[in-house]
Automatic annotation (TrEMBL):
Belongs to the ABC transporter superfamily. This is ABC transporter ATP-binding protein. Gene3D superfamilies: P-loop containing nucleotide triphosphate hydrolases. One of its GO terms (molecular function) is ATP binding. Keywords: Amino-acid transport, ATP-binding, Cell membrane, Membrane, Nucleotide-binding, Transport. GO terms for biological process: L-amino acid transport. SMART domains: AAA. InterPro entries: AAA+_ATPase, ABC_branched_ATPase_LivF/BraG, ABC_transporter-like_ATP-bd, ABC_transporter-like_CS, BCAA_Transport_ATP-bd_LivF, P-loop_NTPase. The lineage of its organism: Bacteria, Pseudomonadati, Pseudomonadota, Betaproteobacteria, Burkholderiales. It comes from Lampropedia puyangensis. Residues 2-234 form the ABC transporter domain.
Amino acid sequence: MLKLEQVSVNYGATCGVAQISLEVHEGELVTLIGANGAGKSTTLRAINGLEPLANGRIVFNGDVISGVSPAQVIESGISHCPEGRRVFPLLTVRENLEMGAYRRQDRQRVKRDMEHMFDRFPRLRERHQQVAGTLSGGEQQMLAIARALMARPRLVMFDEPSLGLAPNIVEQIFSLITEIRTEGVTVLLVEQNAYAALEMCDRAYLLENGRIVTHGSAAQMLANQDIRKAYLGG
Ligand code: ATP
């Protein structure tokens, strides 16, 4: 479904990622793990059209999407739930959700989807008129996820959805991601919490210094002694 072929991104003289090749198949939950600065966010930003490629190409459902605008990437069916949530702080919860669907023409279905989001996130329904900047961290993360889903993506990318959240909220977010995938949305997940990510994914790629150093099924990665030592606390 999604294929990165030898993708490199540079930030001036600094290398963000180098020669990354990876695949996500329809219906999979694939995770990227790696230390701070390994290039995980850069990979998602490259897919999303936010970073120009120095090399390689990105193909989604048979179409080359590298070089197109972020808006066109969304239109092709990829949604991005960015690191740090990035909700529109001065807009209300409802307006944030509407922004997620701004490219859609099917306004009746948008309305229905909005109701569905409120059923799924009762906390957001309660606070639909509250400006997003005053929501708690966990509520903002739920809003960011709901906003990404309002685009009706075929593939959704989550960047560090558990960052800075209390353990019970983290659990909720992870079960939500699993649920989204069960509903047929393909997921590409970036997580600092490698153990949790490997527990819920089908396959994983490990990045170090901008390169993919190993990849495999969740079971293979969890059994890998080097990964256990470096990323899973032994
Ligand atoms: P983290 O887990 O800390 O978010 P990451 O694996 O997502 O890390 P990236 O944010 O992709 O890592 O960063 C990869 C490399 O690119 C790092 O060395 C980082 O300093 C560099 N980098 C990222 N964004 C920029 C930028 N806008 N300008 C310059 N260098 C950047």
